[in-house]
Every structure is written in C-alpha cells, then in structure tokens.
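Posted in: Structural Biology > Protein-Ligand Complexes

Title: Requesting predicted complex, protoporphyrin IX containing FE in pocket

I'd be grateful if someone could produce the 3D structure tokens for the following input. Sequence and ligand are given below.
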Amino acid sequence: MNDGEAPQRPDSFFAMVGGHRTFTTLVDTFYAGVADDEYLIAMYPEGHELDGAKHRLQTFLEQYFGGPTTYQEERGHPRLRMRHFPFPVTPKARDHWLQHMRAAMDAIALPPMYDAVMWDYFQRAATAMLNTPDEHDAPPPAGPRLL
Ligand code: HEM
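-- Reply #1 --
Done. Output follows.
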C-alpha cells in the first residue's frame, strides 16, 4: 500500500511532476471549472457534490502516470470508455472538458516537456471518449443518460 504521498518509483512521470500534491491541484482546479460550467455539470450524477468524482479522477490519473495503484484497488480495471457510456460525450462536451483541463494544467505550470506529454494524453483520451454527435440548437443534455 502507499499513502499517496511517497511515490513508489522515483523515476515515474508521477514523481517527476511533483507527485500527489501536483495531481491534487490539477484535479481541484479542473473540477472548480466543471462546477461553474452549466453544460458539463448537468451530466454529473451527483450534481455539485463532486468529492467522489474528484477522488476517482485523481486516483485514476495518479495511477496512469505511474503513481499509487489506488484506483485499480478501489474500482478495478478502468474501462474508461465503457464507464462513460451513460453520459452523452459530444464534441462540445469534450471541448468544454479539455478547456477546464487546460486551465488546470496552466495552474500546475509543468516544464514544457512534461506539459506536452500530459496535454497530448488528455487530448487523445478525451477524443477517445466521444460517444454522441453534437445536437445543433438542442438544449444541453439533462442528467445521466439511462441505458
Ligand atoms: C471528453 C469529455 C469527458 C466528459 C464529458 C466526462 C464526464 C464524466 C462524467 C460525467 C463522469 C461521472 C463522474 C463520477 O465519477 O461521478 C466521469 C467519470 C470519470 N471520468 Fe470522465 N469525462 C470526460 C473525459 C474523461 C477523460 C479524458 C478522462 C481520463 C483521462 C476521464 C476520466 C474519468 C474517470 C477516471 C472517471 C471515473 C470512472 C469510474 O467510475 O471509476 N474522463 N466522466
């Protein structure tokens, strides 16, 4: 087990960018943006109560970048695309998501090489999550879509 503070591998990307503290700032800043975004927040099952969503995203990202494997222990295999099926991830939703993640990355201000690696990952991952076409002139999707 790992308390989330001490990186297991000092050469991991997770450790290089500042470990748990960096990911806490990243995810807190990201979700502050989401909370203020009418279009995105309508999709979150727990509404403005985002502590659970924050914890899931943070543990996932820490694990993905070589830190503690808490996400796997708590949630099993990520299967991220499948876990997003209940939510209409439109191109507009992806763009909003990325806009908040860009602001969060600006807050952690990584050296350019690390910034580029992480930003490239977010752009590819967010595009891979698309599952619904944009609906022009339609109101924002309300709540989680029930399959
Ligand atoms: C492209 C736009 C995206 C939208 C609109 C979106 C939306 C959501 C929503 C509504 C949830 C449920 C919140 C909750 O867990 O309570 C969720 C969960 C999650 N999202 Fe996204 N997401 C997007 C992209 C991404 C990307 C790019 C990643 C990773 C790099 C990601 C990682 C996660 C994780 C780890 C969870 C929790 C999964 C679990 O249940 O264990 N999401 N997302």
